[in-house]
Design goal:
By secondary structure, the protein is of the alpha+beta class. It contains three helices and six strands; from the N terminus they run βββααβββα. The structure holds zinc ion (ZN).
Length: 108
Amino acid sequence: MTLTQFKRNPDTNTFHLEFDNGFKAELTAEKLRNNCPCAECSGEEVLLYKYAPAKLKDLIAESYQLEKAQMVGNYAIQLFWKDGHNTGLYNWDYLKDLALQNIDTHNS
Ligand SMILES: [Zn+2]
């Protein structure tokens, strides 16, 4: 599975993702940033699929504005936020899990 599209809708600050296996997802900037997988945001423990909340007190409006996104190899995307934070590498499985978590939230 590889990410083939990562497009931002500037009106809603939402990202449209498409993968080569046909999986499509919508993720808000808020969702992405609040679930930043980097060690600084997610804590000392390194656990796959751990959804520890970000340190919300450190987040400002610019924290939810994406400066740029960069592919890392063929397994992840690195997001550069306008507050200078850029250590989060979002791998495909993590993005997919975040998206599916979105769907669960909407259904409940
Ligand atoms: Zn982070």
